Amino acid sequence: MGEASRAIGALRELGLSEYEARAYAALLAMGEMTPREVSSAASIPYTKVYEVLRRLEAKGWVRRLSRDPLLYAPRRPEAVISELRASLERRLKEAEEALRELEEAGIRSVAPAGVYLVRKLEALKRIIKGMVMGAREEVLALGSTGELLEILKLVPRRPGRVKCIVRAGLPPPHFGEWREAELLLPLDILVSDRERLVLSFGLLRAGREPRVSGVVVLDKEVAEMAASYFDELWEMTGASRLSGGGSRRRP
Questions:
Q1: Which entry of 13, 93, 164, 200 is 20 to 30 Å from 48 by CA?
Q2: The whole model's pTM is what?
Q3: In CATH, what number is assigned to the domain containing residue 196?
Q4: Same domain, 61 and 138
């Protein structure tokens, strides 16, 4: 009786109900049986035993050997456990991948304000694309390196207004309005709808993969401050030009 109780407890830990665990344990101990015999051996109400056996069959714990008479047999424990292990490993891998993607690329959907360090450059690129595509009104970009402009080129959808200030000598962007500045901070800045901010440490990486590639700030007040800095620099840099033609103008 002690061994049976231990086995039933172990089966419950694997996700079987009390009746399912009892039915499988009885079949494993006694071999193939009819539903009535399972009901009697496992102390399961006869009105419930058919449903219990159907669920066990669907979960892969038992096999139906015949219909007339209705006869069930247990599958070997090692076979069932092996399948459960493979299924669990697959689900754990899928969960790990989903959580990693959420951590790396899903920051744009995070509601609470905060500051997030982004360690991988590829993750930072995906976040920048997501923030641009998710902008409702305006994107402000301050490009000290060509890296930010290259990322923006890959964005399939852009908001109605994009304003860029680029370091003198860099190729101009192919979209929105832009102005050129001689001196900029040694980092790229992007502000989305004056609510979200990305700082990309492009010039500070010096051609190597850093421990931190950038910072994402989901705080409206901080983003507004960065947007105000952008507005002042925009006014200092002279007339704007649209992508596609016209002359450059430096401050």
A1: 13
A2: 0.50
A3: 3.30.870.10
A4: no
